[in-house]
């Protein structure tokens, strides 16, 4: 298990900010083997700083990162797969040559690196571009190559910073499938993303960070359940004033009156709605991760 505990980090300031910037203020979470953890937050919330500390690019002021119950070491990080926010590919290097080169940097033999490269290019859909320089590829294909670089040495942990940024739906599905395969083999996966629908679909658990603090964390289903249910009622051609006195808020869209409420007598609400017009929808809904995120960070 990968455990991040009470990370704090302050960057030095300048003349206009002598106290610097507090980037992390007690960030902590854990990712178990074979689980995918979605790390979400606004730009500047602390996601990239956390990942850089995990990978040893930055040093925390305090707190700890542990792997398998002991402090994370340099040798451990060599067995991790990392996809940085600023992509680290050599633009003039050919695709296959580049993936194999990074495999060699991780200590693989030339033969093992070549085999892993061929397997990954096929799986990620870039085999036909093996001899093209990276700069000739689309953004989506460059992302696939970057993921192959992170996967080539069969890492024990994956740490990916915005891996789905700017991808078309086909590329998203290819990357998502590759990550799910790694999770299925027991690899813990952490990735950050602004695409909350994707996080909700892929991740077992999620951490929501704001201003360097973890404001919500847990299994996606548990967070949705804890946020509470909302009764949504849609009435078409409703009589004016029908929801007067009922709890909740009503919005009007064309000939539809939409009532949302978290309290009240549902049978009374249904009776009023049926009397007012044609009930198009009456049901309980749980908030999406996007709605939970907006509530948590405001």
From TrEMBL:
SUPFAM superfamilies: P-loop containing nucleoside triphosphate hydrolases. It comes from the Bacteria. Pfam families: ABC_tran, DrrA1-3_C. InterPro entries: AAA+_ATPase, ABC_transporter-like_ATP-bd, ABC_transporter-like_CS, ABC_transporter_ATP-binding, DrrA1/2-like_C, P-loop_NTPase. Keywords: Antibiotic resistance, ATP-binding, Nucleotide-binding, Transport. GO terms for cellular component: plasma membrane. It is a peripheral membrane protein. It is found in: Cell membrane. GO terms for molecular function: ATP binding; ATP hydrolysis activity. Transmembrane segments: none annotated. GO terms for biological process: response to antibiotic. SMART domains: AAA (SM00382). Belongs to the ABC transporter superfamily. This is ATP-binding cassette domain-containing protein. The lineage of its organism: Bacteria, Bacillati, Actinomycetota, Actinomycetes, Streptosporangiales.
């Amino acid at each position: 298990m990968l455990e991040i505990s009470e990370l704090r980090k302050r960057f030095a300031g300048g003349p206009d900010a002598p106290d610097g910037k507090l980037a992390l203020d007690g960030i902590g979470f854990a990712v178990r083997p074979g689980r995918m953890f979605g790390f979400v937050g606004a730009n500047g919330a602390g996601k990239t700083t956390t990942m850089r500390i995990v990978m040893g690019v930055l040093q925390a002021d305090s707190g700890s990162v542990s792997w398998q119950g002991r402090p994370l070491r340099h040798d451990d990080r060599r067995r991790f797969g990392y996809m940085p926010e600023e992509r680290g590919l050599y633009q003039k290097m050919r695709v296959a040559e580049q993936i194999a080169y990074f495999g060699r940097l991780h200590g693989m033999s030339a033969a093992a690196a070549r085999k892993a490269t061929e397997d990954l290019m096929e799986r990620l859909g870039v085999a036909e571009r093996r001899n093209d320089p990276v700069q000739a590829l689309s953004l989506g294909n460059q992302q696939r190559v970057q993921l192959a670089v992170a996967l080539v040495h069969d890492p024990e942990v994956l740490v990916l910073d915005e891996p789905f940024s700017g991808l078309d739906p086909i590329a998203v599905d290819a990357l998502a499938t590759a990550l799910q395969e790694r999770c299925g083999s027991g690899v813990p996966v952490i990735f950050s993303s602004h695409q909350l629908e994707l996080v909700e679909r892929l991740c077992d658990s999620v951490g929501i960070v704001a201003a360097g603090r973890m404001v919500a964390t847990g299994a996606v289903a548990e967070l949705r359940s804890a946020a509470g249910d909302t009764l949504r009622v849609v009435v078409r051609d409703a009589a004016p004033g029908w929801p007067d006195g009922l709890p909740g808020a009503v919005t009007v869209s064309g000939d539809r009156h939409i009532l949302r409420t978290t309290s009240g007598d549902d049978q009374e609400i249904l009776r009023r709605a049926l009397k007012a017009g044609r009930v198009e929808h009456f049901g309980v809904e749980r908030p999406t991760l996007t709605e939970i995120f907006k509530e948590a960070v405001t």
